[in-house]
Write the structure tokens for this entry.
Amino acid sequence: MTLLTSTPTNNENNIIQFPYRVAQHSGVNKGWSYLLSDSVAFQKNVEHAIRIQKPDQEKIPTWIKRLITSGQCRSIYVEDLSLTSEERISIHRLCEQYSVSLVAVSVNDKAAGNIVQGPW
């Protein structure tokens, strides 16, 4: 599992640039990238990406596990991700088993026009 925290690189526009090693995939496009968020979105031209309104905190680990085990997921980005140690261990194992990257996204200014951007 790759668990990284991404922060905006351009504070004026609050555009998020994800690390290249998370977005770099070899071979055929394995699946979808999911964003669980309240205040950020993917750019409109990003392919194979789905934004989902972030559920209540207690439902987030279950949603992450379901996305991972669907077999159609290559990466999950979660705004303000907070997991217990047990949840983190369980999700870590699933990420390794299904070759999924999990990225915690921190947003400094939730009122700005937030766009998730990166090489996909």
The chain has one domain: 3-117. Residues 85-98 form the longest helix (14 residues).
